[in-house]
Amino acid sequence: MELSGKHIVVGITGGIAAYKSASLVRLFVKAGAEVQVVMTPNAREFITPVTLSTLSGKPVISDFFTANTGEWHSHVDLGLWADAFVVAPATASTIAKMANGVADNMLVTSYLSTRAQVFVAPAMDFDMMRHPSTTRNIATLSSDGCIIIEPAEGELASHLVGKGRMEEPETIFKTVAAFIKQNNIKENNSLDDVYINKNALAGKHVIVTAGPTRERLDPVRYISNYSTGKMGVAIADEAMRRGAQSVTLVLGPCEARPSEPGIKIVNVESAREMLSACLDNFDSCDIGIMCAAVADYAIENPADKKIKRENTAVPDFKFAKNPDIAATLGERKRNDQILVGFALETDHELENAAGKMKRKNLDMIVMNSLRDKGAGFATDTNKVTIFTSDGKASAFGLKDKHAVASDIWDTICVKFQCSEN
Ligand code: C5P
Q1: What fold characterizes domain 7-183?
Q2: Atom 9 in ligand 1: which residue has the minimum CA distance?
Q3: Which of 63, 132, 161, 371 shows the smallest number of beta carbons within 10 Å?
């Protein structure tokens, strides 16, 4: 069966469309998935837990505790158990809570604890749907990596006609099933898998470069690239979660910031500044991950005043080659250090990535291709193939960047046997 062995959390919130969630649960169960329904307290006003527990074959979870036994429901266990986490219908209120981390019910706490891909199917009245605050919150969820299943247009509960009807259960089902299939999410994403690696980086010092660099043309202009820094920031966060003793993030100018506390951020602007920050920190590190999109050229003769358009002459900039930070660290690398690079390619991906790993003396290279939709710059997802210096390669499906960071650390930890000491 299409989804056999897969674990799906269906989160139901308090809206008229909640009755459609029964069909959604049924579709997942019919496809062979194990379904755990989590309801917000309001959702129970719209559809009974008995209907859903009968369809899913499991007691519905709604509260942190079972009232009569005092049994605690672990939102962490539930979040980690899931291969996919589907919130349908998602009301304006739950969307706002998810976007802002307001963890006052079982659904939102489980959402905050999950590593699975999250799907959000909004359903609300026309004016609520188009309100700037809802638009803002949906955009936040989307940039946090959730897949938004846009509501359809039609007659709403208020009899207004417009956008706000939850998408049909069949469409939600197909979207989730296609994602799981494409990403070949491993069966039995069990807690054991997660706990094996939980402290794998204990005692390790890690340095990560992330984001773009800027090369100055004059005091107000620069040359840069589309890197958002999200991939490198996710790698730094994941290192911290796996118990690294220190994580230094050398960060080019971008908006992404780590969410784990304790990461030392060194903000830099140009490639030369990035190199200098790396040289200051690399020797004391065990593992370096070079994720930054470093400009290949600097401007040798930036203007010290703003260049005026009225000037008749076209500016005569001279380019100078920037240092290759990864290669410089590769030359310095001791045998007890691991250095990982990235290769963003548009053609001849495998040869180029393998060549770079050798040339820069890296132990591992993470290749992403701009030919893959959803991979590379300015997306929340990535699709990578990881090469190690022993000639092995592993290809992964399209995933959100947090999941990719986890795959990268899994590969490092397994390959280089990072242990607790
Ligand atoms: O040669 P290319 O830019 O494709 O190599 C990509 C890898 O090298 C990435 O890991 C990137 O962070 C690193 N790099 C670097 N310094 C440069 C150019 C690339 O560290 N000047």
Answers
A1: Rossmann fold (3.40.50)
A2: 342
A3: 132
Mean per-residue pLDDT, 390-416: 86
**How many CB atoms lie under 10 A from the CB of residue 316?**
6
Same fold, 7-183 and 193-415: yes
Q: Is the CB of 292 inside a 6 Å radius of any atom of ligand 1?
A: yes
Domain ranges of the chain: 7-183, 193-415
Q: Ligand 1 within 6 A of 324 CB?
A: yes
59-116 tens-digit pLDDT: 999 887 666 666 667 777 788 889 999 999 999 999 999 999 999 999 999 999 898 8
CATH fold, domain 193-415, is: Rossmann fold (3.40.50)
The answer to whether the predicted template modeling score (pTM) of the entire model surpasses 0.70 is no
Cβ contacts of residue 151 below 8 Å, gap of 6+?
A: 121, 122, 123, 124, 129, 163, 164, 165, 166, 167
Give the model confidence (pLDDT) of 4-57 as tens digits.
889 999 999 999 999 999 999 999 999 999 999 999 999 999 999 999 999 999
Q: Which helix (H) or strand (E) holds 370?
A: none
Q: How far is the CA of 326 from the centre of ligand 1 (A)?
A: 6
Q: Which of 325, 333, 340, 368 to mutate to test the pocket of ligand 1 (most atoms within 8 A of CB)?
A: 325
Protein residue with its CA nearest to atom 1 in ligand 1: 356
Active site (annotated) includes residue 352: no
